[in-house]
Amino acid sequence: MAYAMAIKAPGGRDQFHRIEIDIPQPGPGEVTLRHTAIGLNFIDVYFRTGAYPWPVERDLVTGGEAAGVIEAVGEGVGLRVGQRVAYTMPNGAYASHRVVKADQLVMVPDAISHEVAAAVMLKGLTVHYLIHHSYPVSSGETVLFHAAAGGVGLIAGQWLAAKGVRAIGTAGGPEKCALAKAHGYDAVIDYRAQDFLAEVKALTDDAGVEAVYDSVGADTLMKSLDCLKRFGTLVAFGQSSGPPSEFKIGDLARGSLRLTRPTLFHHTVRPGWLQQASGELFEMIASGKIKIEIAQRFDLSDVAQAHEALEGRKTVGSTVLIP
């Protein structure tokens, strides 16, 4: 029987419950997927808790990325039953089966496993837009990347290194710092034991960095501004520690700074972007320039435990859920 892990109402992990579903049938332009692996991301927590608006009244199925096998195709679809595909879109992935519009799917190359594909669609494409669009980095520049040992951070460190960028990371504890350092970062600051602002200033001879990529929010954003060079760019793309309520527009006047708050799903609807960006991402992985660390696996039915580990910052690299 097909099933999904749904949430009754915005709140804690205890809201997760299993619901039995019929295997959905595709309409025109759609396919039915049997999920083989599902990615876990902090945006799932934002939806679960109600930090991001719910699109339904109850029984929300969260999850923003997955890989699977096509089991049925609708009218007008050029894909075939049995093909391996992956996608990223808001919500709906915490299920054994689902219907997806064919134009939201990308083919998974033979060199990429189901688990890796599920783990990189949201995180890897996030890194792609961060370093190519939000602040397009150039070889020789220095940037700061928070949460360097997380799924996004480990991909970013490797991709930045491949582009000739000096990346400084932050992570919590010696083990996470060592992990990030092994994934391309020039230096990693232990934010639990060190003042990351003072360390960035020391590492840059007080010059600061061209850009800061900040997904932490409340705990880091104000100091992130002070890490920037004049005319530097702060890319705020998450708030795992909560929203930065202290920030005011006038704070950008510290150095004629720029601030952007990008979202992946604004990029995926751009014509041609999804196929181009995912192709470049898969090529980087297949070439070995980016290695994906899947450090945690949970059964989909144990998704509450997965959320507990994620929120408690007990995870490193990527986590996948297996239906």
UniProtKB/TrEMBL annotation:
Residue ranges constituting the Enoyl reductase (ER) domain according to the UniProt record: 11-321
GO molecular function: mRNA 3'-UTR AU-rich region binding; NADPH binding; quinone reductase (NADPH) activity
Keywords, ordered alphabetically: NADP, Oxidoreductase
NADP as UniProt keyword: yes
Domain of life: Bacteria
A GO CC term assigned to this protein in UniProt: cytosol
Name by which UniProt lists this protein: NADPH:quinone reductase
Source species of the chain: Thioclava atlantica
